[in-house]
């Protein structure tokens, strides 16, 4: 799995301050490289609820008011 | 995120991983990987002599990690740490020294043979704040909020349901807990014929 996809999973499951911190240059094959990831579980459950809600909104397709619909 | 693999393919992958790491449990340094392992691997990955102090050479020789999760931040005295996919237990023992006698470290691995090797390694150290058990990263046998830190080294790339394993990692962390993870990621697309091979998952 590419690093950006793994990072997206970290964010999806709810890690805060999630990051692909760096690639290490370590190669086990021509197709792969070592990478370091960090994530943190939020301290405040209320803040977590807010972030979960915002993430859900961001994943919804955005409607832009006033934009004419396409026809044909 | 479940995979597109069939049940038979999932079984084949899991059995292949089990066989490979059972071989690792029995093998000496460099038995099973195409990259530097053992003490050479540890040095290349930036483990400082201070981190490794007190761990017998015979244990360091069994290291087969792909990165240095300890470079991601401190692990403090008194903390509880879970090492997911602990292998022969080198990182688990490093963490045990960092948390000290007031802390606690648990190593889990899905392969029974490698847990037996980790337990044998532990017996050489005399450390009393470490335990090892057979468990799947996708179904961790711990209550919510058990650990301050989850570490892992070269394991998630082998897992079929990475999302479930990450979700489990987060579940067992206390609020404010940290995930410190080293792994291999794809940096270029696999050739189609190679990607199509189930065996490629674990070789």
Give the gist of this structure.
The complex is a heterodimer of chains A (72) and B (203). By secondary structure, chain A is α+β, with helices and mostly antiparallel strands. Helices cover 35% and strands 24% of the residues of chain A.
Q: What is the rounded distance between the termini of chain A?
A: 39 Å
Overall geometry of chain A: flat
- Give the overall silhouette of chain B: globular
Characterize the largest beta sheet of chain B: strand count, sense, and whether it forms a barrel: 5 strands, parallel
* Count of DSSP-assigned helices of chain A: 2
What number is the mean pLDDT of chain B? 86
**How many domains is the backbone of chain A divided into?**
1
* CATH class category of chain B: Alpha Beta
Give the beta-strand count of chain A. Answer: 2
Which H/E pattern describes the elements of chain B? HHHHEHEHEEHEH
Protein chain pair with the most extensive contact, residues per chain: A-B, 33 and 38 residues
List the helices and strands and how they pair.
The complex is a heterodimer of chains A (72) and B (203).
Chain A: H1 3-12, E1 16-23, E2 32-40, H2 45-59
Chain B: H1 7-26, H2 38-44, H3 49-52, H4 57-60, E1 80-84, H5 90-99, E2 104-109, H6 112-125, E3 130-134, E4 147-153, H7 162-172, E5 173-186, H8 192-195
Parallel strand pairs in B: 1-2, 1-4, 2-3, 4-5
Helix pairs in contact in B: 1-6
Note down, in words, how this protein is organized:
Chain A has 72 residues and is α+β, with helices and mostly antiparallel strands. Chain A has one domain (3-59). Helix content of chain A is 35%, strand content 24%. Chain A has a two-stranded antiparallel sheet with strand order 1-2. In chain A, a hairpin with an 8-residue loop joins strand 1 and strand 2. By secondary structure, chain B is α/β, with parallel strands linked by helices. Chain B has a single domain, classed as Vaccinia Virus protein VP39 (Rossmann fold), CATH 3.40.50.150. Chain B is built from eight helices and five strands. Chain B has helices at 7-26, 38-44, 49-52, 57-60, 90-99, 112-125, 162-172, 192-195; strands spanning 80-84, 104-109, 130-134, 147-153, 173-186. Chain B has a five-stranded parallel sheet with strand order 3-2-1-4-5. In chain B, strand 2 (104-109), helix 6 (112-125) and strand 3 (130-134) form a beta-alpha-beta unit. Strand 2 of chain A pairs antiparallel with strand 5 of chain B, so a sheet runs across the interface.
């Amino acid at each position: 799995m590419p690093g950006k996809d793994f990072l997206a999973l970290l964010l999806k499951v709810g890690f805060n301050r999630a990051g692909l911190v760096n690639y290490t240059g370590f190669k086990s094959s021509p197709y792969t490289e070592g990478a370091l990831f960090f994530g943190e579980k939020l301290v405040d459950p209320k803040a977590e609820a807010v972030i979960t809600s915002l993430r859900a909104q961001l994943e919804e397709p955005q409607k832009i008011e006033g934009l004419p619909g396409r026809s044909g | 995120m479940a995979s597109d693999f069939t049940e038979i393919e999932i079984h084949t992958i899991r059995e292949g991983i089990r066989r490979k790491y059972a071989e690792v449990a029995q093998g000496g340094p460099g038995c099973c990987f195409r990259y530097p392992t053992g003490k050479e691997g540890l040095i290349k990955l930036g483990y400082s002599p201070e981190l490794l102090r007190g761990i017998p050479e015979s244990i360091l020789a069994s290291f087969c990690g792909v990165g240095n999760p300890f470079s991601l931040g401190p692990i403090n005295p008194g903390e509880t740490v879970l090492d997911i996919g602990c292998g022969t237990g080198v990182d688990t023992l490093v963490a045990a020294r960092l948390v000290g006698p007031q802390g606690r470290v648990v190593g889990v691995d899905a392969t029974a043979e490698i847990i037996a090797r980790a337990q044998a390694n532990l017996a050489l150290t005399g450390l009393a704040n470490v335990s090892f058990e057979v468990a799947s990263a996708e179904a961790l046998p711990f209550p919510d909020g058990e650990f301050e830190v989850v570490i892992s080294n070269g394991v998630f790339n082998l897992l079929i349901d990475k999302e479930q394993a990450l979700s489990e990692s987060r579940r067992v962390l206390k609020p404010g807990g940290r995930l410190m993870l080293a792994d291999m990621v794809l940096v270029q697309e696999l050739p189609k014929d190679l990607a199509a091979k189930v065996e490629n998952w674990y070789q």
